[in-house]
Amino acid sequence: MTITLEMMPPLMFGGLIVAMLIGYPVAFTLAAVGLSFGFLAIHLGFFDLNFLQAIPGRIFGSVLSNELLLAIPFFTFMGAILERCGLAEDMLDSMGQLFGPIRGGLGYSVIIVGFILGAITGTVAAQVIAMALISMPVMIRYGYNIRYITGVLAASGTITQLVPPSLVLIVLADQLGKSVGDMYLGAWGPSVFQILLFAGYTFVLGIFKPSHVPAVPKEARTLTGWALWKKCLLGIIPSAVLIFVVLGTMMMGLATPTEAGAMGAVGAIVLAAIHHKGFSSNGQKILIVGVITAGVGTIMAMLFTEANIVFKICFAITYLAVAWICIEAVKIPDLRDLIRQGYETTMRITCMVTFILIGSTCFSVVFLGVSGGTWLEHHLTSLPGGVWGFLIFINLFIFFLAFFLDFFEIAFIILPMIAPIAQKVLAPVVGPDAALIWFGVMLCVNMQTSFLHPPFGFALFYLRGVAPKDVKSSDIYWGAMPWIGLQAIMVILVIAFPITVTGLLEKPANVDLDKVKIEVPQIDLPPLDFGQPKQ
């Protein structure tokens, strides 16, 4: 059989799927399939050997010269530290007692804490495991329905992918060629609506099936009044300040994503020290003052453009406090071990991302070399239904692809191929500047389901690993179904109402160039004297 150029793109996709089903690691599978079809294309005369020289150039350009990707290890380190420092335990305990008196109160506390932790940790595995270990025994003890328990714990962990400063959003911004700050601004609307959907489902369940989400008995609530509020505030305020400083400085253009990630990594050590029982009370007070000072500096910079000097002074004070705490922290064995573990997690995740990026570059260069981009554009732009047909097909495609691939793999393999097509198709709907932001956030909402849907949802595996033995796997799988439906509803809302993403983005100035007038003021010049020169 003669292989033509038109047959190469679908053959490459088919070969990639077969290789992944065999079970080889995705990063090496991508590189092997790409290079194999590259040599086949050279043999068939579709391009020569010199074309493959683009692969090392693209790898060095996208990995070694890409400053944006440097933010990934910083945010990963921040999450790795915070997931082990006891912050989740404190917040879940205080929130559980605050919302305990109402039906579904423990569910609300899991959802809210999941939202806050999602904004400061960025890792689904750590969040699901930590919240399950802490909350599942308590929820079972007070008679919550086991399928609701497993569903709310898994779903609240996956919100990590959407809430800024999510690693997914950083990768999407890089692959789509957009600003990380704009991607974060676009993600806030869907993040809040997603939490409201989760809370709304819990509320409805409390009305129609109150036995599934009972209130916590009064005798089980050990804290009340100001003592309870104080514990809640001590858990929320430092976390909120860290989120505000990291995201605020980046969105205002005061720091690059890498610089903001570095601040987040240092802030994680601060929060770990604040929550560590062995750290001195004086040290905790110094840290709190430093963090509050950083927040004040950020607010001043937001309110007054001439406040840059105030901003710098506040951050100088903060970094002096943080430098002192870092010196003191390494003297405490538990904190020192915590920072070793954080480094290990960061190294593992960063290496995984790098190898996937290298493999996807090999695949995409060869795919584009055999006219794969043209092949994709022809099929995607000829779908029935125009823009909406394109969006429905892409979201269904990503949904089913997420059964087999991680979000990093989807972002590095699929996005570079479909981003130019999405820009061309969606620009007439929301404008050229917001098109890819809308598209990227939409896919981020969609890819949340990759952690939830059976049988390959990683959040379900994490939950299975820490759940008591009497909790059936079928309960974990069925418990996830309503929450997958809620996430699907969120995807539909983002498609139907682009303003949920674009509402916070800066609107481009609409200027009619035909009506622009440039008026030059008349200047009365003194008369010129061409007479005889004066004596």
Q: Could you name the key traits of this structure?
A:
535 residues, mainly alpha, globular
Uncertain parts:
none
Q: Number of helical runs?
A: 23
Order of helices and strands: HHHHHHHHHHHHHHHHHHHHHHH
Q: Estimate what percentage of residues fall within beta strands.
A: under 5%
Radius of gyration, whole Å: 27 Å
Residue share in helix: over 70%
Shape: globular
Structural class: mainly alpha
Total number of beta strands: 0
Largest sheet: none
Distance between the termini: 102 Å
Mean pLDDT: 76
Task: Walk me through what this model shows.
- Helix 5 (87-99) runs antiparallel to helix 6 (105-120) and helix 10 (180-208) crosses helix 22.
- The termini are far apart.
- The longest helix is centred in the middle third of the chain and has 37 residues, at 333-369.
- This protein has 23 helices and no strands.
- It is mostly helical and 535 residues long.
- The radius of gyration is 27 Å and the shape is globular.
Task: Summarize the entry for a quick read.
With 535 residues, this protein is an all-alpha fold. The protein is 72% helix and 0% strand.
Q: Helix and strand layout, with pairings?
A:
Blueprint: H1 8-22, H2 26-44, H3 54-64, H4 71-82, H5 87-99, H6 105-120, H7 124-141, H8 146-158, H9 167-176, H10 180-208, H11 225-251, H12 257-275, H13 281-303, H14 308-329, H15 333-369, H16 372-381, H17 386-401, H18 407-413, H19 415-430, H20 435-447, H21 458-466, H22 473-496, H23 499-502
